[in-house]
Amino acid sequence: MSRIGKSPIALPSGVEVRITPGHVVVKGPQGTLERDLPGEMTLRQEDSILLVERPNDERENRALHGLTRSLVANMVTGVTAGYQKELEIVGVGYRATSRGPDQIDLALGFSHPVVVNAPEGISFEVPAPTRIVVKGIDKEKVGQVAADIRKIRKPEPYKGKGVRYSGEVVRRKAGKAAK
């Protein structure tokens, strides 16, 4: 049995869960998330605990058991606390400026500023010109938006310039050797 799949999901106070066959809706103080359940997985609610059950021990269902539990647990965490990813900008003249909570301007060494619009449910914060915080309740969306921003100018291995995740270590290469 899946060790992740069999562990229960605790529901904090203020979180409502509606379960229909193949679909789950989680509502909390931060907002509402909904998702179709993969495969033939079923959810069962007992008091303030959610349990994910699989129909049999076939290989595909064993693989989906832990995945389903993690997806639903991420939804519960998202509607209670939310998620955030921090990005750092490294490079001379590289900076970010905020144009409100749903748009940022990036100066990343191109001949033009790059404007990034936040999709629905995502907001941006720029606490410093070299830091960007991506916030939202959907863990997948937050991670994808942060990855898309990083993709605009990835950290390069010679000087380390570019956009990187906070705490990311960029392995540096030696430059051209002088004669």
Task: Describe what you observe in this structure.
The termini are far apart. The strands form four sheets. Strands 11-12-7-13 form a four-stranded antiparallel β-sheet, with helices on one face. Strands 1-6-5 form a three-stranded antiparallel β-sheet, covered by helices on one side. 22% of the residues lie in helices and 36% in strands. By secondary structure, it is an alpha+beta fold. The chain is built from three helices and 13 strands; from the N terminus they run αββββββαββββββαβ.
Gross morphology:
elongated
The beta-strand count equals 13
In whole angstroms, how far apart are the ends? 62 Å
Quote the average pLDDT: 93
Gyration radius (Cα, Å) is 21 Å
Topology of this protein?
Blueprint lengths: L2 H4 L2 E2 L5 E5 L2 E5 L4 E5 L5 E5 L2 E5 L5 H22 L2 E8 L4 E4 L4 E5 L6 E4 L4 E7 L2 E6 L2 H14 L9 E4 L14
Summarize the structure.
The protein is of the alpha+beta class and about 180 residues long.
Features:
elongated, 22% helix, 3 helices, 179 residues, alpha+beta, 3-stranded antiparallel sheet
